[in-house]
Amino acid sequence: MILLVALILALAWYFLCWLSLLGDGPRRAVARLSPYTRWLHAWILSAPATFTYIAIFTAFTLVQQTTPPRLIDVLTRVNSTSLSRLRHTPMSVLADSALWVANRGAGLSLYVLVFATVVAWAERRYGPPRIILICISGHVLGTLLTALVELHAIESGRAPHRLAHTTDVGVSYMMVAGCVAAVLLMRGWWLVAGITALAIGVVWPVISNHTIWALGHLLATLCGLLVAALAVFLGGVRSPRDLRPCLREPAAVTTE
Questions:
Q1: pTM of the model
Q2: pLDDT tens digit string along 187-221?
Q3: For residues 2 and 107, is the Cβ–Cβ distance under 8 A?
Q4: 156-189 burial by CB neighbour count: b if 16+ within 10 A, else e?
Q5: Which of 14, 96, 208, 210 shows a CA-CA span of 20 to 30 A to 52?
Q6: How far is CA 177 from CA 60, 61, 204, in A?
């Protein structure tokens, strides 16, 4: 839904820009709205890694939603970070699984919203290289630690052997790692809100559901937190560009 609204707004904006060439009314409307479009443009450019990743996993998800369900189920199993897949092709599976939204693309709008706001905010302070490292660490280390827990549970008889073939794909490990990196830098009420959101979205499912997937999100969050803390300790925090001047009208150019 968010993607559809964004597409409609983008088309409406460019249509309004075209109309501004024909009349004073649309021209005044464009002049009033231009500061906000400049701010949005600057926001996207200030977090290139995050918005590039949004474009990539969104494209993969749209393919899922327009492909026959049986084929998607096959592709999901092929790209899953299950124990059987990790044992044979660990590198390719870890790379491929980071591009798929779970449950045939369910919740895509939520992923886009969180990445475009929270994770993008974090990237502006860590910088693209460090936010990439944090998110990848959450995905890779979280997946490997979850696999070790699965393997131990199967070998000790606490879980059935079919658990080795369960599918586990999605961008969620990357997302929670980026979110915890953002919370690490928050202060005041924003910090309270961030910790509360992580407690509800990551910690509570482990307590209430007791599933391996809930545990995986918790482990990815902890890995992201560790790497983010090391990044801050070793490299500090960037001072992001102030985007508020984008909201001001540009000064008129006068000629003698």
A1: 0.84
A2: 999 999 999 999 999 999 999 987 888 888 999 99
A3: no
A4: eeebeeeebebbbbbbbbbbbbbbbbbbbbbeee
A5: 14
A6: 21, 20, 17
